[in-house]
């Protein structure tokens, strides 16, 4: 068990929505393509939305060695706050006040560590690519030495983290249930649509099996 | 024209993706249900994902007067960095290195201002509710005096902001176009599914017209 509940990660507002177990936190992270990374520079807040993947208790991001913020995080071993958020539905209550959304979010606090080990960099990019599109890594041209050298990978230990989750129907005030107002949930879902082939394809290559899940 | 391009908002990495015009920035903001708000507390980075709406050149959030972070932002007139991110597609290139996503993001820097004017608070909640679900505000029970008093609204001027956008097909290295690898884009789209009525409905109320867009 690597998750620590601290003052910074304890949910104080609507505390019943707080979730602290590793499996739930990992599942919410793994379901997200991007996170936002907040850090402090010259006493001011910055944040960057970026892709990521998780391997064990580490969250990995990658970018160019020329990226300002990657270099800043690496050089300063910066403290960061990382969040991911899924919106699963609009919660339409009878009262404006009780309108809400169903969501799953994670907020974690960590520090940037530059990954220098070549095997670890390779593995993180493979996991990252296959997270984005399962089956893709085996199918594509692998990075050249120059491409590897142009890539910076940072990792963040997932240790001080918590999740917050809301599910289900609206909760209205008792007397409002008698109002003639429709109430319920509009589910939201991120859907993968039918793949669009690159118009610059020179060869006729059939759609790979791993992309055939997609529908229009 | 209220948008200023500054050192902090100039896109340095892949600068051709930088977008600085007000209309584009507003459209990306308006298309998002949630943003993340980063701020500094005790020299450490924090961030909160939260719903928001835009009215003119102001971004509004609301929360409970009991919320720690809302109170912190209000009391310190905190500097913030706010971001929103849409992922519009997976960009599957021939090489692992050129894999990407199509996205629209905004990053802005601003300062928290507590809204005390009652009319402005009312307007922001109406816009917020109708952004979440067009047509909803006219249909629901409006806030009571006690509910208004329990609600804190903060606003942030949209002034120092930039967007970053990627669209279209993969860009591969010239020689890779001859490889027998499928390349293209998998579009991602957030879909509203068929509304689920609250099982606690006491009265039989038909689905409102404004919810009939939804499909399964």
String of helices and strands of chain A = EHEEEEHEEEHHEEEE
Structural class of chain A: alpha+beta
How many angstroms separate the termini of chain A?
41 Å
The CATH topology of the domain at 15-86 and 102-167 in chain A is Pnp Oxidase, Chain A
Mean pLDDT of chain A: 94
Largest interface, with Cβ-Cβ < 8 Å? A-B, 92 and 93 residues
Q: Which outline of chain A best applies?
A: globular
Radius of gyration of chain A: 21 Å
Oligomer state of the chains in this structure? homodimer
User: Tell me, what is the CATH class of the domain at 15-86 and 102-167 in chain A?
Assistant: Mainly Beta
Tell me the CATH superfamily of the domain at 15-86 and 102-167 in chain A: Electron Transport, Fmn-binding Protein, Chain A
Q: How many beta strands in the DSSP annotation of chain A?
A: 12
Helix share bin of chain A: 10-25%
* Estimated share of beta-strand residues of chain A: 35-45%
**Under the CATH scheme, which architecture of the domain at 15-86 and 102-167 in chain A would be assigned?**
Roll
Task: Identify low-pLDDT runs of chain A.
Answer: none
Biggest sheet details of chain A: 7 strands, antiparallel
Number of H/I helices of chain A: 4
SSE map:
2 copies of one chain form a homodimer.
Chain A: E1 18-19, H1 22-30, E2 34-41, E3 44-51, E4 53-55, E5 58-64, H2 68-76, E6 79-92, E7 100-111, E8 113-114, H3 118-132, H4 145-149, E9 151-157, E10 160-166, E11 184-192, E12 196-197
Antiparallel strand pairs in A: 1-10, 2-3, 2-6, 4-5, 5-9, 6-7, 6-11, 7-10, 8-9
